Amino acid sequence: MVKENKMRNRLENWPPYILFLICIFVLAPQDVFGQTINPGGTFRYQGQVKCSDCPLPPPCPLCPTPALAPRPASTPAPKLTPAFTPMPTPKPTPVPVPTPSSRVVCSKTVSSGQSILSAANGAANGQTVCVRSGTYRECGDLTKAVKLVSHPGNTVLPVIDQNATSSDNCRLRLKPSSAGAVIDGFEIRDGWEGLKIEADNITVRNSIIRDNRHGILAISVNNLTLENNKFVNNGNKSLCAASGLMPKQCHNIYINNSSCKPMTGSVIRNNVIEYAPGMGINLRGENCGTYPIDGIVIEGNSFINNAYGIGSYKNITNPTFKDNSFSVSKLPATNHKYPSHIGLWETSGLVMTGNTLMSSLANHYAIWVSDEQSKKQKEVNGNSWKAAGNRWKWGRSRNDFKSAYKRTTGWDKSGTVN
């Protein structure tokens, strides 16, 4: 007993790793003869054969296969090349939007109760006369090449109200000596003509011209520019009647070569042209022989409910009608028997492209082509027609526009007709 206690005490005092090695040796598999069994071999024990070389059983289909822990990917050593820092893209300096005061430098200023014409005719050519909001009656002639503009401090346009009668024929007339003048930013109303233009190189823009006998009457002028205006209800019935004219003879814009001079270079663009009992634009060059109205450009305008949109009447050469819209849903009081978007009489060299022409009136003529000369134009293509009715004129009145227009004229091969 004393020996066993001494042995136990001695073993307890051995280091743990010595005990670990002894356990491995003692527990290692051995056969009955004390020989170590090789893995995969066979041995006999008490009449039984133990097989360690038999094939393994098939894997259990319901047992999950243990997933191997993924081997962490090796992280490449960082390159020592210094990182490139892109240069910042410079922001563009915004362009300042000019205020009216920075656009206009007033040489003279006119206030309500003063005369615009007196100030303008007293200025030097090229000076700018600024007009404050208010209502002015100006019957007379502009004789200087000045710029008449709405004052930059205005919130509403100044009004030139002619209050014309048959006894005074009140109008604002631009005489030949005013060539180069600019009218910018007015409402002009109730005149014999809103503006009567007898000078070359006149510009009228950003204005409302309404309720006059003619909105603008321009006689034998060159390089007239009308842009960004609104012409409405010119052809006022009472003024037409007072002057002995019929409604169909009073127009929003009237370009006439009654003085029979060469006329070139005029442009009418980006205007609203509305509700004339005569024509939205009337071009009239008859009886002037070798002096036609030549090369006028009419583009980007909106023609609304005019008895005629554009009338091109005799001795008109090389006009361009481009990218305009024409729409008719009702007509003003008029004595036009055959209202139409466009009428051509003795007109040649026309380029007419990209226009839209619509009417909801069954008795409205899509186009009026009066004579053989007007059937032979330079280019009519890419226009879009939408007509409620079928009426048109090709030398004679017809009622088959939708089915026969392209085939008969040879025009608008890439246009549409509905």
Based on helices, strands and strand pairing, what is the structural class?
A: mainly beta
Low-confidence stretches: 23-54, 60-69, 77-102
Shape: elongated
Distance between the termini: 126 Å
Strand content: 25-35%
Total number of helical segments? 6
**Portion of residues in helices?**
10-25%
CA radius of gyration is 48 Å
Main sheet overview: 13 strands, mixed
Mean pLDDT: 84
Number of E strands: 37
Characterization of this structure:
The longest helix is centred in the N-terminal third of the chain and has 12 residues, at 16-27. Mean pLDDT is 84; it is low at 23-54, 60-69 and 77-102. The protein is elongated and about 60 Å long. Helix content is 11%, strand content 33%. β3 (108-110), α4 (116-121) and β4 form a beta-alpha-beta unit. It is mainly beta. The chain contains 6 helices and 37 strands. The strands form 4 sheets. Strands 6, 9, 12, 15, 18, 19, 22, 23, 26, 29, 32, 35 and 36 form a 13-stranded mixed sheet that branches. Strands 3-4-7-10-13-16-20-24-27-30-33 form an 11-stranded parallel sheet.
